[in-house]
Write a structure and sequence with these properties.
homodimer; mainly alpha; Arc Repressor Mutant, subunit A; Tetracycline Repressor, domain 2; 2 domains; elongated; DNA-binding
DNA sequence: GTCTATATGGTGATAGAC
DNA sequence: GTCTATCACCATATAGAC
């Protein structure tokens, strides 16, 4: 889109500055929130004057939209690509593992970018929100289909609601943005633990009140507590 | 603390107004973010004039702090209480299930309150953040101890890092704040699915490449993708 | 307690020189 | 392209009447 000379040449001076501004915007928005971020601070971080920003983004809202767009497809492209290179012989379990790891790497490497679409969601102008929502939905659909296929292949339990499971899985992984620190566990270790828990759970096999079922069964559980 | 006539009488007119302001603040902060929220709007929602707010909170920052404090201990009290009434005979698996359900109910019923401590975290003034952090840590410690006890009792796998598992579990449940809608699955259903996945995983028992282990074993997994 | 001013400062955005 | 001004507005917070 913008800068319709997409095919040829390397970055012009304008493109370089635009990227610099965008990077600064990502940082400031993620630290201060949409309303809390000021054009003056974005400019300062970018090394420009406040007025100059308007050469690249004609409003704060459009700047926000650009910031979000950068992050949107990053993760989904990473994951789709990781799945695509899997051999057809790969089990769904393996595919899911690869997808989990790719998703985790995707969100954590895009850093502040991904933080924005989570923390700032509620404060984002409606029109920006709408566009982001559409791209997000398509990606979530991919995960749903992956789980459904795995279920039909007999690899995962049928007593779990697929949509709910998908939502829980994705949101659980996304939540790593809240607590991941570069000086802690490695992304690989985290992805590994995620996969183990999602795949097999935390309980020791054969333990106590009922293992994973193929068909709906244990139904009168829960309902404790209020 | 504040209003040191805690023990006696019912709410004075001032207390009622204070609560009204606090509730309005919760709503507006959660919708607009810390910086995006205006005292004028809080006042409007509370049915007061902007200036009147300062009778109860001498600054926007202190108002924010009050809002956060309301939500902090709600969830942890709910969970601790739910665990306390469990019979000593209850397995750790049962305790964990009860804790999951209580935590989920806690965050979802406190609604916008809990949203604040997640969405607005990055925008919160440092001093407020610090206090919130301490209370949060104590609660997370409780979960850690629960998992450690379960592990020592031989109920859960020892090949999972306990801290990481705790973090994943809690953040996964908290993430329900992002996607829960009152017109969708019931809280009970969601808690049930959470527990099933966390306990047993999504894979059909006995399936493919290795079930849950008691001891560290399968170690050369993963490392695919980059 | 709650109001109506209002002081004071910061914000997004624009205009026009270079 | 980037700057320096500057406008018009809205924010938090205060003062003092009721």
């Amino acid at each position: 889109m913008a800068r319709n000379r997409v095919v040829k040449r390397k970055q012009s001076k304008a493109d370089i500055s635009r990227d610099k501004v965008l990077a600064a915007a990502v940082q400031v928005f993620s630290e201060k929130g949409y309303a809390g971020a000021t054009m003056r601070e974005v400019a300062r971080v970018a090394g420009l004057s406040a007025g100059s920003l308007y050469y690249y983004f004609s409003s704060k809202e459009l700047m926000m939209e650009a910031v979000i767009n950068v992050s949107i497809n990053n993760v989904s492209k990473t994951v789709l690509n990781a799945i695509a290179v899997q051999p057809p012989s790969a089990s769904y379990s393996e595919k899911i593992k690869v997808a989990i790891k790719a998703h985790l790497q995707g969100i954590l490497s895009s850093g502040a970018n991904a933080v924005i679409s989570r923390y700032l969601w509620v404060q984002i102008p409606d029109e920006v929100k709408r566009k982001h929502f559409i791209a997000q939905s398509a990606y979530e659909e991919f995960w749903l289909n992956l789980l459904i296929a795995a279920q039909e292949a007999g690899e995962i339990r049928t007593d779990l609601d697929v949509r709910l499971t998908r939502t829980i899985m994705l949101s659980a992984i996304n939540a790593a943005l809240d607590w991941y620190r570069p000086d802690g566990k490695s992304v690989d270790e985290i992805a590994e633990t995620f996969f183990k828990i999602i795949k097999e759970g935390i309980v020791i096999s054969g333990e106590s009140d009922g293992p994973a079922l193929t068909a709906p069964e244990a139904k009168k559980e829960a309902t404790a507590l209020k």
